[in-house]
Structure formats: structure tokens, C-alpha cells
TrEMBL record:
<feature type="transmembrane region" description="Helical">
    <location>
        <begin position="7"/>
        <end position="29"/>
    </location>
</feature>
<keyword id="KW-0812">Transmembrane</keyword>
<keyword id="KW-0472">Membrane</keyword>
<keyword id="KW-1133">Transmembrane helix</keyword>
<protein>
    <submittedName>
        <fullName>Uncharacterized protein</fullName>
    </submittedName>
</protein>
Amino acid sequence: SLRKPKLFWVSAAAPLASVISSTLFVFIFKAQNHGIQI
């Protein structure tokens, strides 16, 4: 993975990005259900 740092970062950031996106999706979904304007 030292020869391909980009591949390493992609493999490391993929699960993190999925967690962040799911968290933001739930946050926005709950905010809309509570009538909060975004």
C-alpha cells in the first residue's frame, strides 16, 4: 500500500464516507420530520 497511496486512501475513506453520508441522511431526515427548515 506504500507504492499506491491513492488506493490506500480510497480503501480507507470508503467506509468512513459511507458512515458520514448515512449519518447526514438520518440527520436531514429527522430534521425534515420535525419541520426544521434547511
